[in-house]
Specification:
The complex is a heterodimer of chains A (187) and B (537). Chain A is mainly alpha-helical and 187 residues long. Chain A has helices at 2-6, 14-27, 37-40, 43-52, 57-63, 72-82, 84-99, 102-108, 125-128, 131-137, 160-164, and strands at 118-119, 143-144, 149-150, 174-175. With 537 residues, chain B is of the alpha/beta class. In chain B, strands 1, 2, 5, 6, 7, 8 and 16 form a seven-stranded mixed sheet that branches. In chain B, α1 (15-26) runs parallel beside α13, α5 packs across α13 and α6 (165-178) crosses α12 (430-449). The chains are: A mainly alpha (187), B alpha/beta (537).
């Protein structure tokens, strides 16, 4: 009994699992070097998804019920028409099982949400390229409420160097792991 | 023995409650705060875990109706195309906000005078400026000084700007070609170690709580300091009503704990900081013979004029990889090029654009914003061309106040403590629709100029009611406003509202910076007038 309570997968019948994998194969089939979701969404992946989101189990049972028949396309069509939120759960379980698999992540070049160190030295590309200068050169954007017109501010700096001369040595944060790329053709 | 009343009782431990709590504790006030949520442990936040994208769609959803956690209250939203979003915990919605930290602009406070619509505020940008500087320091703001979309500052952001990422640079170059404004976004996210908190690691999971503590949330930036100064913060305390005496003065609040036990917290002054849904809900539930239509509601405007910033999303897809699942969610850059009124466009006021990261593979397959689901063999190509290849312009339209957009109290739905739920009645104005349509077309031009090979648009995103504003507006005339210019109720002189409810108009920018500055200004005034403050006997 405790196994049933703690293992959400134990509540899924063999027929339900077979239907789930048939749907998975339909939604995300093998193509090129990418495996199908049916091959990837193993018991372990399903267990991971349903443990993280036990609220999905009830709608998943509904999505996989036998009365919807054996034809996958008709099942998906019926769910989409009559029970879109149930269909959404079925899709989420399959997608989540697939894209939390390490092999799949490697294949799509997604390392997960990484923690990157910020570098706090140097100037970013947008300053080097003069993109801020271009903004400053156009002058004030804000509207002066006393006139209702675009503000005219005398003596405001029109270049980065002018505006920031006093803080030329101040640090600007850059991501060490994801630097702003250099201008076209650079590295 | 009767309980000694607090000098000030604050209801809600979010951004504005934290600002007021700290300021008053610093001034020696005996502060008590009632918060229906709990303290959170950021080790439990899902952003650095494999199941992040799964949890972000349930327990860490921004909609309380989707989360359905014990500390949440349901919101009846059958009569609105936009769902209100919030979080209930110490830190309030700063736990899940993006961290973008733009200020309202000078014109925002003079909408009637310069554009002939809605109302002017009783205060202005320049009066708030010193408070912006102080709250920037309190929350910890990163940004590049000198943005010409704002008047010149005399004080820079305390930290240098965060990276704008490859996507931000691409769009910045495009705006340079177009001659349009852009600027690295100001975010209340650390770019360097600051105030005992670590810098951002660019994980982009800001809306699921910040694992690093780099994003400012008042459970980190304000409440520990206030508590160290003597403030008492009671969690799991769901306020049912604000109590008043025969003279109509607030005397404290009745609240319910986890076990359903009722308690009374007496106070000399009550400050409500429960957001523009929770605050009018509580005021309307606090009716009495002296306040038959709800507390502080002689104007009839409590719960009226709800504004939520109708939001559209324009996503551009680019051939080259941008690694756009990383970066602060806060924004990378912003544009205020089309923020100010130009009546030739067919509407008044404008919208702020914020460029945001685009999420991981689950969000790519099942997009929560603009985009489509692609199944079958083409699914893989879809993910290959979308994941990490996108840039999202989020367009926040100014929402003009309309009394038809309002909060009422449900006669049938309650929270788990039996307190009636709020009902939201809201529709998007024609002006806002025209505004978003215009901005969508300009944002598409921005993406095209940047070289996007495909552009996907969400014309009005349902789960976008992050900015809850206007349901207890401030003003000088008690007949047409709920609060005075110091956030004090016209009707109840020892009752303050310091959250976004006080907004007269919505501006078109993320409001937390402005809410915090206004709250600090109100708290300063409470300190300065403490000996004139009328309190119950």
């Amino acid at each position: 009994m405790s196994a049933v309570a703690s293992d959400p997968l134990a509540t899924l019948l063999a027929d339900e699992l077979a239907t789930l994998r048939a749907v998975a194969d339909r939604l995300i089939p093998a193509a090129g070097d990418m495996p199908s979701a049916a091959a990837v969404v193993s018991d372990a992946r399903l267990r991971f998804v349903l443990s993280a989101r036990p609220d999905l189990l009830g709608p998943l049972h509904r999505a996989l019920r036998a009365e919807l028949g054996t034809d996958v396309a008709r099942r998906l069509e019926a769910l989409g028409r009559d029970e879109p939120s149930t269909l959404g759960v079925l899709q989420l379980v399959i997608v989540a099982g697939y894209y939390t698999d390490q092999q799949v992540r490697d294949l799509i070049g997604y390392p997960g949400q990484m923690a990157l160190d910020l570098r706090t030295f140097g100037f970013p590309a947008y300053l080097e390229e003069g993109l801020i200068d271009a903004v400053l050169a156009r002058g004030a954007v804000w509207r002066d409420p006393s006139t209702g017109k675009r503000a005219v501010v005398e003596g405001t700096p029109r270049t980065y160097a002018e505006r920031f001369a006093a803080m030329a040595d101040a640090p600007v944060a850059e991501s060490a792991g994801a630097p702003d790329p250099a201008p076209e053709g650079g590295t | 023995m009767a309980q000694e009343p607090a000098d000030v009782l604050i209801i809600g431990a979010g951004a504005s409650g934290g600002v007021v709590g700290l300021r008053l504790a610093e001034a020696g006030f005996k502060v008590v705060c009632l918060e229906q949520g709990e303290w959170l442990d950021r080790a439990d936040y899902p952003g650095n875990k494999l199941d992040w994208e799964l949890k972000a769609r349930k327990d860490w959803a921004t909609s309380p109706n989707i989360r359905g956690l014990a500390q949440d209250y349901p919101i009846v939203e059958d009569d609105t195309p936009v769902s209100p979003l919030m979080y209930n915990a110490v830190g309030g919605s700063t736990i899940i906000f993006a961290g973008a930290w733009p200020r309202a602009l000078p014109s925002d406070f003079r909408v009637r005078s310069i554009d002939g619509v809605a109302d002017d505020w009783p205060i202005d940008y320049f009066e708030l400026l010193p408070y912006f500087y102080r709250t920037d320091r309190q929350f910890g703001v990163s940004g590049l000084p000198g943005d010409p979309a704002y008047p010149p500052d005399t004080e820079d952001a305390p930290m240098p700007p965060l990276p704008i990422g490859a996507a931000g640079l691409k769009i910045a170059r495009a705006h340079t070609k177009l001659g349009w404004h852009w600027w690295p976004e100001f975010n209340s996210i650390n770019s360097t170690p600051y105030d005992g908190r670590r810098p951002c690691v660019q994980r982009s999971t800001c809306q699921s709580g910040c694992n690093e503590g780099a994003k400012a949330s008042s459970d980190l930036t304000h409440w520990p300091k206030a508590i160290a100064l003597g403030a008492r913060l009671v969690t799991g305390a769901r306020v049912r009503r604000i109590e008043t005496d025969a003279k109509g003065l607030a005397t404290g609040a009745t609240w319910i704990d986890h076990d359903g036990e009722e308690h009374v917290e007496p106070a000399r002054v009550v400050v409500v900081a429960a957001n523009a849904i929770g605050t009018p809900r509580l005021l309307l539930l606090s009716s009495s013979p002296a306040h038959p239509d709800g507390l502080a509601n002689s104007s009839g405007l409590v719960g009226k004029r709800l504004m939520m910033h109708p939001f559209a999303n324009v996503a551009g897809l680019f051939e080259e990889p941008l690694m756009s699942w990383q970066g602060q969610f806060g924004d990378l850059i912003e544009s205020l090029e089309f923020y100010e009124t130009d009546e030739r466009r067919g509407f008044v006021r404008g919208a702020r654009w914020g460029l945001a990261p685009t999420g991981g593979p689950i969000n790519t397959a099942l997009p929560s914003r603009a985009g489509e689901q692609i199944w079958g063999a083409e699914h893989h190509e879809h993910v290959r061309t979308h994941l990490g290849h996108g840039a999202n312009w989020g367009l926040f339209a100014e929402d003009l106040p309309d009394e038809a957009n309002h909060i009422t109290i449900s006669s049938s739905v309650t929270d788990s403590s039996g307190i009636p739920a709020p009902e939201v009645h809201y529709s998007m104005a024609d002006n806002a629709r025209r505004m978003l349509d215009f901005h969508i077309e300009r944002a598409k031009e921005s993406m095209e100029a940047a070289g996007a090979f495909k552009i996907e648009v969400d014309r009005l995103m349902r789960y976008s009611g992050w900015h809850l504003l206007g349901t207890a507006r401030m003003g000088d005339d008690p007949k047409t406003s709920v609060l005075d210019r110091w956030n004090r109720s016209h009707d109840v002189p020892n009752l303050y509202v310091v959250d976004g409810s006080c907004f007269v108009t919505s501006s078109g920018v993320n409001p937390t910076s402005t809410i915090a500055a206004i709250a600090l200004r109100a708290a300063d005034h409470m300190v300065e007038t403490r000996f004139e403050q009328q309190v119950p006997a």
